[in-house]
């Protein structure tokens, strides 16, 4: 009663303060559903109108929980990953459709944006403090890139971000598979040299764009380069014409579109920041990083060279007859 009495006092100074929206407003306990309206409560309302109101309320609530509300609160796994279920909601806005991938940072889920009616990819960062801090740095980088890249053709575009149950969630546009995933599903067969040239031109342009903004990616690899489209075509593979046609080895897949975008800016470093001792995934790590001589923009260029050689080369997997 005391709290209610204080709240009812007129405080002119307090009322002028800006109101902040609750940070996790979608996680507050669900409101008690309004009681069904008896048909005889108001004489002025028709019975049909009462029935329509009751039907609407019953369709919105199931056992006291809003239909589009978040699932019941559950703990994370032992590594701090968010535990989810297909078909559940990630806040009332995003419906979980599928799991796209997982890494040391957390998980990437394919979701349906109920507000914009489009598929999106949501990166759910682990609930550990160091990963949360890294996620906030990545958000800053993504916003800088989006502001500078008005065409949105070089780097993945951030749609939104929010803090959900102690997990930083970053909403991205939905793109196709990574170059690594495409190679793996294609039995690690190399790309034609003309396609590699097109990919190289876009990759170099994107890296130069980042360097102009005084940003160093530091983790360029096929896993962090995504095709914009998932569509592909089957073409004859002339290197394996001697094989039997029964195993389908006479054909390989090629992407319909060569358009690519860079992703994963969690390790991106500003030029003026202190540079950590070791960067880049081992297979794409520049010699100056390995030798501990200090690194800068050229470490990205070394990674680009390693990627292009890999795309052109025939893996040992595809040499098995």
From TrEMBL:
Name this polypeptide is given: Serine threonine-protein kinase
SMART domains: S_TKc
MF term (GO), any: protein serine/threonine kinase activity
Organism whose genome encodes this protein: Musa troglodytarum
PROSITE patterns with a match to the protein in the record: PROTEIN_KINASE_DOM, PROTEIN_KINASE_ST
InterPro entries: CLK_kinases, Kinase-like_dom_sf, Prot_kinase_dom, Ser/Thr_kinase_AS
Region described as Disordered: 1-27
Gene Ontology annotations for the cellular component aspect, listed alphabetically: nucleus
Keyword Lipoprotein belongs to the record: no
Alphabetical keyword list: ATP-binding, Kinase, Nucleotide-binding, Serine/threonine-protein kinase, Transferase
Coiled coil: none
Residues annotated as domain Protein kinase: 94-321
